[in-house]
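Instructor's aside before we start: the two examples that follow are unrelated to each other. I chose them only because their records fit on one page, so don't look for a connection. First example below.
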Amino acid sequence: MTKRCAVCGEEFEPITLGEYANGIGATFEHTSLNPSDKMEVCMEHAAFLYTKCFNCGSLIPAVSQVVAHTFIRSSVFNYSNNELSPSNEMMVPLCAHCANPEENVAVVCEECNRLFILNDSIAGSNETTIVTSHNGRRHGYLCNGCAENYRPCRVCGALTHTSRGSIDEDADGVITCSQCMESRRVQRRNSCSPTSVGINGYCYKPDPIFYHSDGETFESIKHKLYGVEIEVDTNKSYDEDYLCAEVVIPVSEVVSNFVKKVYVKTDGSLSSRGLEFVSMPMSLKYHKDNLGWDKVMKKLVSLGYRGHNIEGCGLHVHINKAAFLSDEGMADRYAAQTKKKEDLAVSCSHNYHNSTFSDKHIAELDENVTKFVFLFEHFWDLMLKFSRRSPSRLSYCERYGTPNSGVNMKAMKDLVSEDGSRYRSVNVTTSYTVEVRLFRSTLNFNTFIASIQLCDVLIDLARSKSISELAAMTVEDLAKFIYGYNYTELTTVFDKVTKGVYSTDTSDADPNGVEVCEEVDEYSNYDSDDDVSYEDDEE
């Protein structure tokens, strides 16, 4: 039998209050309504007469004159201070059983954004429902259901959702909030002293210690020293708190005293698991034959680290500025600085820094450094291939270009000196070194040594020729100069980059001489003159 709605007057098929309550998820726990009574209004207007108690869910009349019940004002947390305040006012229906304005306050759950009743038992005895921020300020409240997914941060105590922090399941599930994780990461990256785990902050820079091979003198190495920075990273899920135990210590055990000669740092351009290996200044021969780079690189590869195949990783070669003085200039400097030449380390300490260079030496340094930069510009396409970088990935090592007025010493020197950016293929803004930034990172020992050897050859070329002579050089001229050094690694790479056009080696013998430990062959896919194909690092 149809009824006429008491609100709109339209006819409708009536249902019981029990059926309606079931449809909206209400109960009859604390109500005087009878579940078997027929509804007097249509479904469209049922909410005008019936609603749920906000606290217990009982079905109650929506009109206070019908059954006595209480509406209370909802207090929502005000983020401008640490107190609950009625910043948003809303009325919530309560049945007579639940209504008690002095003990019940409706608040918004910080997690699910739903209102819930915050009573004395929750607010007073269950403090875990109060959300606190990283700095201890109250943020609001959690309902009991959402509070089950929160744990206090082991560092600052702030409640942290289990999906938003770092959980150590081996320590009974303790959690570190994201703010504490980031604070620790920033502290490590910005620390200017070694951390307790042996990985130094980004700005850590110890006093230089100079290394050379037995029998070398400062004159025999032409006063050239090289400090290198190799950035590596990994896709493996190492916890950064355990990088020292899982990576640095195993690497240091491969070569005795390695980490005393090469220190490990963090770098903001890498992931939280990325590492930068920075060497002390040392001779080319010491890098190649004495330091143990080949063993260390193999170990890093076995631990899942990569250099060439991780975008953003670079190989930077620092050259002491004294290396750009001519033999005559160095002889003058020796006479002015010290009479003791036997001890290479002492000699290096006098020549590594440039603060006491005379005006004559500074002028010579400026010219030779400018010519060194010019060689990278003049043979740019070749250098880019040698570096293994793509033209689209040079934001941290861009080229200078050439002067619009033509190539001459003054124009080129002005171009370099007025640039002022350190993010160039060759960075000349540092006080004590010239930094070659163009090379892509590598854990291939051959490629690594060839990169230093290239710098070694180009230094001699810059010191021995005028800029007009360098401007007249062809790639064939450069090849003859390179082959004259008999650097096996450099010759091998140069042949691959130039596809053997200038090679004078007609033998079938393997020219590598040193076992490859990372990229099988980083240069074999140079099939195009304007792009680079990259290979997998793994053997």
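Example two begins here.
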Amino acid sequence: MRGVLRRCVQNLRGGRGANFYFRNFSTARAVLVAISNRVRVLSVSLVRAVILRIDLLWVPRERRTSGLWRSQVVRCAVSWQVWDFGERRPALVRLPDRGTISDAIEVCDAEIAIIDSEIANCDIARPIHLPEKCPRFEIRSAVLPEVGPPIAPEVGVGCGRDRAMLRAVTVGQRFSRPHDLVQYLADDLMATVASGDILFIGDADATSTTSSLLRNRGRASVVLESGYGKKSKSGTCSILQRPDIGSFFKFLLDSDPRSVGAVIFVGSSLPVEELAAACDSKIDAPMWFVDANRRQLSRLERPAAPEKSSWPKISIVMPSFNQASYLEAAIRSVLDQNYPFLQFIIVDGGSTDGSLDIVSRYREQFSAVIVESDEGQSDALNKGFALATGEIMNWLCSDDLLEPGSLECVASAFLRHRADLIAGGCIRIGATRDEETYRHHNSLRLGITMPLDALDILKFIRSWESANYFFQPEVFFSRRIWDLSGAMIKNHLFYAMDYDLWLRMALAGATFRHLPVMIGCSRVHPTQKTQSNRMYLHQIRQMMEEYKYLFQSLC
């Protein structure tokens, strides 16, 4: 006990926080009582319902108060299981503390006010598909012990999986002069890199000498700022950041990886996030790291590609109804992936435009075919997902497309990072694939696995509509988070059922990995459901009422 106390006090001095794990309550309480006038309890939580975790912060002498158990505020992560909100199984709602409930209610009220103003100012007509009143559910909630969802994925760039991919092999000894290092690197690049641009990432002064030397030898080189760039600004929350023009991350999102011949990182420490993002991309060029301070050159090795036998099963559900003009292209975009562990389910609501003839031609290549009337897209998706058995899941509308190689890219990222959501980019197209109108990437950070921010996603007008998050074809999700969030699409939703699903997944504690890769295509055409008239805002307003009611019920 005395040794635990000594280490506790030593670690807390100087304003440093710490967390400690105790295997029983009596030991934890004894330690807290012994230091009760010198520390503040930041949070108390159970880890796997066995070990008590206590987060502590040292309190300066002038701010100390006695009676820890009476006067100090204890913030606890709180979880609920929610029934009767339309879920197939209880849905997990996990919040950092009870105070977040009031914050969420305030967000809902603010969004409702903004939406009401938008509808009134723009005279947005109410769609006939919506119920007249916001649906009401009998919500039964059960407060769980302070324990997280089943073994959450590792979070952060420094976790074991990321460290495994960041192997650096030192080339030769430390160079005595910077000129010798630059000369060695330039000679090696000229000999081994036959074509493509050579990227230099880092401070412009540190990279200018080598890039100039290569240009003098007739090789094209591009100098980029590291990460998001010096002028990049964070978004509405800590997980959002848009890269600035001229930065490495902007290059990853916008450029063709086939144009890259080599990547050279220059700096005083290994650029972990940049390298992790490069490994997540389709860049297949050699990478080097130049330690400018130590005058040392290292070759960076990528992680080995996972064996095909270890690839996870992917389930894709395709809802179809009278989209014969685009249906075959959508089907082929999935089948042409040639993914070995694919479960492809199509659900047609009784099309009359020739779609069923197309489905019949490919019937043997589908894992399941459902042809029957339904109550709309949400109902069709629920019928399909009820048959899905994959470890990774998604749906693809019958007028959208997957980009070539997308499933392999998603599977590889899932095996490396085990994130709940694997999100890439999406291309807006017209009647044909060649008619590109817009390339979208979300604002989520690259090169790192992080939890989604449910409160920011709840800000539909103030954050979601700014394209900070997802277009539906570009994001795949794990069965783990599908089950934790209720394993269903809400049947009464005509619009934005995908937005509602991502929000419920965020509330259940979902983590994401943003890949600098184009995953899918979203088609814009006159007969599509979501139009520029913004009639969907009426549905979003109802959803805000639903979530406000949910949070009020949890109080």
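Confidence is low (pLDDT under 50) at residues 40-76, 146-155, 157-164.
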